[in-house]
Structure formats: C-alpha cells, structure tokens
Amino acid sequence: MTLQTLAREMMATPALAIVMTLAAYMLALSLYRLMRYPSWAPPMLTGSLLLALFIAVLPVDYDTYYLDAHWLTLLLGPATVGLAVPLYEQFQHIKRLLIPLTVSLLVGSITACAATLAIAWALGLSPDILASLAPKSITTPIAIGVSEGLGGYPGLTAGIVTVTGILAASTIPPLALMLRCHDPRVVGLALGLNGHGLGTARGFGIDAQTGAFASLAMGLNGALSAIVLPWLAGWLGQ
C-alpha cells in the first residue's frame, strides 16, 4: 500500500482526525515538559494551536474534522465522573464545611453567569453569541450542552471555555500567594469554580486536597449553572 493510498483511506474514515488529535496533544505535552511546565502554556492550549495548524495545512476542513473527532468529546463525561474518587477521599473535610461551601458555590456560580450575560447584553451582542459566552465557567461537556440548548455555537463555547480555564489556572495560584492565602480548600474551590477542568487539573498539580475541592466546585457549578443559565438568559432577552 502506497503512502498516497493510505492517506486517502485515512481521510475517508475518522482515523485521520484521531491521529491528528493525538499527535497534537503528544507534541504539546512534550513542549510543556521541555518548557518546565509553565502555567500559561498548558498542553490543551498549545495542542489546540497545533491542531489548528494541522487542519490548515492538511486537506481537511474543520467541519469534517469535527464530525470525525466528535466522539472523543464523549470521553470527557467519564473523565469528569472519575474525579469523584479523590472527592470521596476528602469527604470528611467537605462535610464539615457544608454551609460555607454551599454559600460560596451559590454566590460564585450565579455571579459568574450573571456578570457574563449582563456584560454581553450591555455590549449589544446578539442572542446567539450571548448564549455561546454564558457557559464559560462550566466544564466542557456541560457547557456545550447548555450552549446548544440556548441556541449558541458549541464551537465558540468550547473555545471560550478553554480560554477561561487557562486564565483561571494561570492566575489563581499566584494571586492566592499574593493575597497570602495558603488554604488548599480555598484555592481549590476558586480553581474549580472559575477554571473548571483545567483549573481542577492545576489543583491536582498542587496537592490532592486542592484538587478534590476543585473537582467539587467544578461539578456543582456545572449542575447549578445548567439550571440557572436558561433562566438568566431568558431574563436578559435570550
């Protein structure tokens, strides 16, 4: 089988999209290690840029790639559920802080949703763009579903979610140090609430307790936002 024949056969199946995705991630991970793990350049960011370069160079349009690689997003659900394991290990700590955790999550989640929708509405953005921006602080699987339900663009939502996660994961730990906040529960809660999956990954990179509280905040924020966002969007004219 010639190289040209193999390439044509791969383009006719999801294999090319899978190979492109894995290659982009592996290259990004190697670059991340080579640069000594900078918080401002996580593999998800550099991998996305490499993947965009692959799509631009190779004879593959984005719509074809999205259809072929769409099933990969299904793996995000089980990965998110798997975060319940460290969460269970920290359950005794969480149970003792039930009331402050609940209040913090409610205030943080509602504020993040309301502020995003209010700013977008005040700038005169169209309802579909507003719906795409609203789930920016929710983990990707839930954010895409909420965006579709509100009439937004899932691709734009995924990009905004990624940018939000990178900013939160990059700025919250140094900001906590600047404010002399060394409590892993507080840092973890802030990372999960604002940075969803990327923030949670950053939390586990700090320690298990920070990661557990980040995964708690990410999960509860996603569930609460899925309920609150449609109501807020309707109130603002969506």
From TrEMBL:
Ubl conjugation keyword on record: no
Topology within the bilayer: Multi-pass membrane protein
Keywords assigned: Membrane, Transmembrane, Transmembrane helix
One protein family per Pfam: LrgB
Transmembrane region(s): 12-32, 39-58, 70-88, 97-123, 156-179, 212-236
Keyword Membrane: yes
Principal place of residence: membrane
Subcellular location: Membrane
Protein name: Membrane protein
Organism ancestry: Bacteria, Pseudomonadati, Pseudomonadota, Gammaproteobacteria, Oceanospirillales
